[in-house]
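Known limitations

C-alpha coordinates in this collection are predictions and should be treated as such. Users comparing against experimental data should check residue numbering before alignment. To illustrate the layout, the record for DUF427 domain-containing protein is reproduced below. The input appears on top and the generated C-alpha coordinates appear beneath it.
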Amino acid sequence: MNTPASEHTINLARNPCRIQVLFHGHVIADTTSAVILKEAGYKAVCYFPREDVAMEYLRASAHKTRCPYKGEASYFTLARDGDIAENAVWTYEDPLPAMEGIRGLVAFYPNQVEIHRVDEDDTRHDIADIILHTDSGSGRSQQEHWPANVTAPLN
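Generated C-alpha coordinates:
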Protein backbone atom coordinates (compact mmCIF):
# COMPACT_ATOMS: atom_id res chain seq x y z
CA MET A 1 0.00 0.00 0.00
CA ASN A 2 1.38 3.42 -0.93
CA THR A 3 0.31 6.84 0.22
CA PRO A 4 -0.98 9.23 -2.44
CA ALA A 5 2.10 11.49 -2.19
CA SER A 6 4.56 9.84 -4.57
CA GLU A 7 7.54 11.53 -2.91
CA HIS A 8 6.64 10.01 0.47
CA THR A 9 5.87 6.31 0.12
CA ILE A 10 4.55 4.16 2.92
CA ASN A 11 4.27 0.42 2.44
CA LEU A 12 2.48 -2.03 4.72
CA ALA A 13 3.17 -5.75 4.67
CA ARG A 14 2.15 -8.66 6.87
CA ASN A 15 5.04 -10.43 8.55
CA PRO A 16 4.38 -14.13 9.27
CA CYS A 17 7.52 -14.49 11.43
CA ARG A 18 7.16 -14.74 15.18
CA ILE A 19 8.15 -11.46 16.83
CA GLN A 20 8.34 -10.70 20.53
CA VAL A 21 8.62 -7.52 22.56
CA LEU A 22 10.40 -7.67 25.91
CA PHE A 23 10.26 -5.01 28.60
CA HIS A 24 12.89 -5.53 31.30
CA GLY A 25 12.93 -9.25 30.52
CA HIS A 26 9.15 -9.71 30.43
CA VAL A 27 7.31 -10.67 27.25
CA ILE A 28 4.86 -7.86 26.49
CA ALA A 29 3.95 -8.90 22.94
CA ASP A 30 4.25 -12.15 20.99
CA THR A 31 2.81 -12.43 17.49
CA THR A 32 2.95 -14.10 14.11
CA SER A 33 0.60 -11.43 12.70
CA ALA A 34 2.74 -8.30 12.74
CA VAL A 35 2.34 -5.56 10.15
CA ILE A 36 5.59 -3.95 9.02
CA LEU A 37 5.35 -0.30 7.99
CA LYS A 38 8.13 1.06 5.78
CA GLU A 39 7.92 4.82 5.43
CA ALA A 40 10.12 6.90 3.13
CA GLY A 41 13.68 6.90 4.53
CA TYR A 42 12.74 5.89 8.09
CA LYS A 43 13.48 2.59 9.78
CA ALA A 44 10.73 -0.02 9.47
CA VAL A 45 8.18 -0.12 12.30
CA CYS A 46 6.54 -3.30 13.53
CA TYR A 47 2.85 -2.99 14.47
CA PHE A 48 1.24 -5.63 16.71
CA PRO A 49 -2.39 -6.75 16.98
CA ARG A 50 -3.71 -5.91 20.44
CA GLU A 51 -4.81 -9.49 21.04
CA ASP A 52 -1.10 -10.43 20.95
CA VAL A 53 -0.07 -7.69 23.41
CA ALA A 54 -0.31 -7.83 27.21
CA MET A 55 -2.49 -4.72 27.27
CA GLU A 56 -2.85 -4.88 31.06
CA TYR A 57 0.63 -3.31 31.29
CA LEU A 58 -0.29 -0.37 29.04
CA ARG A 59 -2.07 2.76 30.27
CA ALA A 60 -3.39 5.40 27.87
CA SER A 61 -1.58 8.71 28.25
CA ALA A 62 -2.71 12.20 27.26
CA HIS A 63 0.13 12.48 24.73
CA LYS A 64 -0.89 12.84 21.05
CA THR A 65 1.03 13.55 17.86
CA ARG A 66 -0.09 14.08 14.28
CA CYS A 67 1.47 12.64 11.15
CA PRO A 68 0.34 14.18 7.84
CA TYR A 69 0.45 10.73 6.23
CA LYS A 70 -0.99 8.48 8.95
CA GLY A 71 -3.15 10.72 11.14
CA GLU A 72 -3.31 11.27 14.91
CA ALA A 73 -1.32 8.92 17.13
CA SER A 74 -2.37 8.14 20.69
CA TYR A 75 0.17 6.91 23.23
CA PHE A 76 0.44 4.44 26.09
CA THR A 77 2.77 4.31 29.05
CA LEU A 78 4.22 0.87 29.71
CA ALA A 79 4.51 -0.21 33.35
CA ARG A 80 5.57 -3.57 34.75
CA ASP A 81 7.11 -4.53 38.10
CA GLY A 82 7.89 -0.91 38.98
CA ASP A 83 9.59 -0.18 35.64
CA ILE A 84 7.90 2.61 33.67
CA ALA A 85 8.40 3.80 30.09
CA GLU A 86 6.27 6.86 29.39
CA ASN A 87 4.72 7.11 25.94
CA ALA A 88 6.68 4.05 24.79
CA VAL A 89 3.79 2.64 22.74
CA TRP A 90 1.60 4.29 20.12
CA THR A 91 -1.42 3.52 18.01
CA TYR A 92 -3.55 5.07 15.28
CA GLU A 93 -7.15 4.61 16.43
CA ASP A 94 -8.56 6.44 13.42
CA PRO A 95 -5.83 6.60 10.75
CA LEU A 96 -6.10 8.35 7.41
CA PRO A 97 -7.77 6.16 4.74
CA ALA A 98 -4.51 5.06 3.09
CA MET A 99 -3.28 3.70 6.46
CA GLU A 100 -6.35 1.65 7.38
CA GLY A 101 -4.04 -1.39 7.69
CA ILE A 102 -2.61 -0.12 11.00
CA ARG A 103 -5.92 0.86 12.61
CA GLY A 104 -5.85 -0.11 16.28
CA LEU A 105 -2.50 -1.90 16.06
CA VAL A 106 0.23 -0.87 18.49
CA ALA A 107 3.92 -0.12 17.96
CA PHE A 108 6.76 0.14 20.47
CA TYR A 109 9.71 2.52 20.56
CA PRO A 110 12.76 0.26 20.16
CA ASN A 111 14.80 2.38 22.58
CA GLN A 112 12.27 1.54 25.33
CA VAL A 113 11.84 -2.21 24.71
CA GLU A 114 13.64 -5.10 23.05
CA ILE A 115 12.00 -6.23 19.80
CA HIS A 116 13.27 -9.46 18.31
CA ARG A 117 12.37 -12.24 15.93
CA VAL A 118 11.95 -15.69 17.45
CA ASP A 119 13.56 -18.26 15.18
CA GLU A 120 11.89 -21.60 14.49
CA ASP A 121 14.80 -23.49 16.05
CA ASP A 122 14.65 -21.37 19.22
CA THR A 123 13.17 -24.15 21.35
CA ARG A 124 12.84 -24.11 25.10
CA HIS A 125 14.24 -27.12 26.93
CA ASP A 126 12.33 -29.02 29.56
CA ILE A 127 14.04 -28.77 32.96
CA ALA A 128 14.22 -32.59 33.22
CA ASP A 129 16.22 -32.68 29.97
CA ILE A 130 18.62 -30.08 31.33
CA ILE A 131 19.15 -32.05 34.55
CA LEU A 132 19.54 -35.29 32.62
CA HIS A 133 22.32 -33.82 30.49
CA THR A 134 24.12 -32.05 33.32
CA ASP A 135 26.99 -34.05 34.70
CA SER A 136 29.84 -33.71 37.16
CA GLY A 137 32.47 -34.42 34.55
CA SER A 138 32.16 -38.17 34.90
CA GLY A 139 29.85 -38.32 31.88
CA ARG A 140 26.99 -39.69 33.97
CA SER A 141 23.72 -37.90 34.61
CA GLN A 142 23.28 -36.41 38.07
CA GLN A 143 19.52 -36.83 37.95
CA GLU A 144 19.54 -40.06 39.94
CA HIS A 145 22.25 -38.80 42.36
CA TRP A 146 20.38 -35.82 43.72
CA PRO A 147 17.48 -36.40 46.10
CA ALA A 148 14.51 -34.10 45.77
CA ASN A 149 14.75 -31.07 48.05
CA VAL A 150 11.03 -30.42 48.05
CA THR A 151 8.03 -32.54 48.91
CA ALA A 152 4.68 -32.78 47.22
CA PRO A 153 2.09 -30.39 48.66
CA LEU A 154 -0.35 -31.83 51.13
CA ASN A 155 -3.98 -31.73 50.13
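For this record: The first strand starts at residue 10 and ends at 15. The domain at 10-118 is CATH 2.170.150.40 (Metal Binding Protein, Guanine Nucleotide Exchange Factor; Chain A). Please report discrepancies through the issue tracker.
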